[in-house]
Design a protein that fits this description.
It is a single chain. This protein has about 260 residues and is an alpha/beta fold. The strands form two sheets. Strands 3-2-1-4-5-12 form a six-stranded parallel β-sheet, sandwiched between helices. A six-stranded parallel β-sheet has the order 6-11-10-7-8-9, with helices on both faces. Helix 6 links the parallel strand 7 and strand 8. Helix 5 packs parallel to helix 6. The relative contact order is 0.15. The mean pLDDT is about 90.
């Protein structure tokens, strides 16, 4: 059995590829919506954030022979827990990660943290569009909402918990874009024009995260952009192609059969 940390669209496709290669696989996801998407394609999913200890219990329960960590590039805590669980349970750990986008737009500033991005936006002022999700919204809200010369626009998934978070943060509802992607370049342009965006804040989530479309839209409109770099973790092994993951699983299987 292969245990796979999932939740993104490309991770779901990888899970199907692993199954089609002849492996039993189950996924761990954070939301019920992600579990429903897995169930729609015939894959079982465990819902909820997991500690390393809880992962070890699942590994033992399902007789897991390898962990494939295909969690989001910015879900660093999930990866840390998975690596720890693999070590404790003595099973191989394989990291799959989307390729990084090649960003050539000359009005892009790279930063290493959400806090640095928020500070940059505070210094620039104007209409700031935030496309980094709801998880780190408090960082930006705390720093930017009190500023009189900043209008913060936040785009996030249309979930009840996200709207409750916005309410707790006293986030103006007219500044919320609650939409489910994917987003095309044309839609990004329309939203930026509608709100009069002067600064885009995004993160380097890769092509599957539609960062290319956001950057292209900002570039066409001449909008300055802040890109948050991916967290750097010391993965024991990392692949960027489905075929490499499946090949690695084959090698693990062969070793186990000897």
């Amino acid at each position: 059995m292969i245990m796979m940390l999932s939740g993104t669209s490309d991770a779901r496709q990888l899970a199907l590829a692993i199954r089609d290669a002849g492996y039993d696989v189950f996924a761990t996801v954070v939301t019920e919506h992600a579990a429903e998407q897995m169930a729609h394609v015939g894959l079982h999913a465990h819902v909820g954030r997991l500690t390393a200890c809880e992962m070890v219990q699942l590994i033992q329960q399902h007789r897991v022979t390898a962990i494939v960590d295909a969690s989001h590039p910015f879900a660093e805590e999930a990866s840390r827990q998975a690596m720890k669980a693999a070590e404790e349970a003595n099973v191989p750990y394989i990291r799959y990660e989307r390729k990084e986008s090649v960003i050539t737009y000359d009005r892009v500033t790279f930063v290493d943290s959400y806090e640095a991005a928020a500070q940059y936006a505070a210094n620039k002022k104007g209409v700031v569009m935030l496309t980094t999700g709801s998880k780190t919204l408090p960082i930006f809200a705390d720093m930017l909402l009190p500023l009189p010369d900043v209008r913060l626009i936040a785009r996030m998934l249309p979930r009840k918990d996200n709207m409750e978070l916005c309410e707790r943060l006293r986030f103006p509802q007219e500044n919320i874009i609650a939409m489910q992607g994917p987003f095309t370049k044309q839609l990004d342009i329309a939203l930026m024009q509608h709100f009069g965006v002067t600064l885009l804040v995004t993160k380097e989530s890769g092509r599957a995260g539609f960062v290319d479309e956001k950057i292209a839209a900002a570039q066409e409109l001449g909008i300055e952009t802040v890109v948050i770099r991916r967290p750097k973790l010391s993965y024991p092994v990392v692949y960027h192609e489905f075929s490499d993951v499946i090949r690695a699983l084959g090698e693990i299987k062969m070793k186990g059969e000897k």
